[in-house]
């Protein structure tokens, strides 16, 4: 295998997070990084997750919006063109552009499976040989996450999120197990593509990590669009003849028969969307005396970032952490003062259903646990003319959660058309700890959906708005 090739940073996994880490750890320095990738540079997000799903969802949202805008006639979905758009946005599963970007930034790319093989050492299994690498500063695991498939479905070769985003054959009847983000978003595009969709949700609401009012609004919208949403629907059995891997996005066998709370549900395909877990298996942890469960107790030279870290499994969050860590480790390597990041940074998320659910920071329930005294303001989506103008069937709501002691917004949730583009204002307010009496002077333009902020601030008690608040009730 020869003498190890030495880099400052050896990064296993070239998803968005690995790429960002390598960029920020080397930019403007003499430090070197290598990215090891077993599939496509750009990772799950670029080819099988964020990009294809959003490429599919946007035309659907535009079409349904157009149907509720008097003055527009003839907006119609073209399924073939929709799938072609998806293929364009995933660059036809070709990562040349991202490899060129990495190499242009001075980052080496090695294709193969990377595994730890000793302290600061990684061995890469490429198509034709083993390559040994050594990290002067750190080995960075950015290996992402993998879907968790409950045992009951394992023998039925169900669809995973890759099949849903990479759909080629549209099943006439599709059951989706799960009520999280993947399940809700996939239900929208599979329904629009013509599947008769049944959602089998174990819990008593969709999107269990968001505000309950958001769960209700999304459920109502999914039901209105013709989706059968079944809550508290436990699947006890799953049978399928001729289960096989027919390729990504193709139907994986015969009919699927599910026993759901005593009822039989028969479908042509089953999508299992029951969550993801950090991809820590088969990365060679045992070679340095570690195992996935004890990963928190690892040496300084081994860094985890992105989905594999167990933090919020979101591209923007992983990339943020990669930027921060990259800059910090570069500074440490060069003996410069390390840039400091705040201890608490709020995590935003947008669920691209219709209506969209955009949230940041704490939910009301979490805020009540974290703060002694919390004030909540909630308004209807159509309370602001600019929001109502976006489509004539506008439904939704906006909510902010304010910590009375500091007068600052600690959480916000917007549910409505285009809500995703509104959330950054809330993120700035929460991250910047801007008191609401100051936010009053951030004037939203008329008539934009941002005027929801006016309505929200007007709903707060006067003392909070005026900034005369103490720690009183
Ligand atoms: C259907 C779906 C839709 C999503 N939509 C959104 C969205 O709209 N917005 C959002 O913020 N998040 C979204 N996410 C989450 C997002 O995809 C992840 O948070 C993001 O991809 C994490 O980036 P990452 O770089 O940590 O991991 P990944 O993107 O998974 O990249 C990890 C890379 O490491 C490689 N790898 C793993 N092990 C090895 C190894 N041993 N050797 C070499 N290479 C290896 C993998 O091949 C992969 O390319 C979505 C997820 C799903 C499933
Ligand atoms: N727009 C976005 O930002 C976006 C889109 C898609 C995915 N993602 C990310 O990907 C991650 C994974 O998404 P996901 O939807 O797979 O996970 P999730 O954690 O959001 O939802 C999992 C769902 O499956 C249910 N579930 C878990 N185990 C089950 C079981 N044994 N039987 C039946 N139901 C079960 C849960 O109750 C929950 O409803 C998310 O956490 C999210 O951060 C983000």
Automatic annotation (TrEMBL):
Give the FAD/NAD(P)-binding domain ranges. 7-291
Tell me which EC number(s) this protein carries. 1.-.-.-
Which cofactors are named for this entry? FAD
Q: Which residues form the Pyridine nucleotide-disulphide oxidoreductase dimerisation domain?
A: 347-452
Class in the EC hierarchy, top level: oxidoreductase
Q: Which domain of life is it from?
A: Bacteria
The entry's keywords:
FAD, Flavoprotein, NAD, Oxidoreductase
One Pfam family this sequence matches = Pyr_redox_2
Q: Does the keyword Chloroplast apply?
A: no
Q: Name one GO molecular function term.
A: oxidoreductase activity
PANTHER family xref list: DIHYDROLIPOYL DEHYDROGENASE, MITOCHONDRIAL, DISULFIDE OXIDOREDUCTASE
Q: Which family does it belong to?
A: Belongs to the class-I pyridine nucleotide-disulfide oxidoreductase family.
Name assigned to this protein = NAD(P)/FAD-dependent oxidoreductase
> Which organism was this protein described from?
Ammonicoccus fulvus
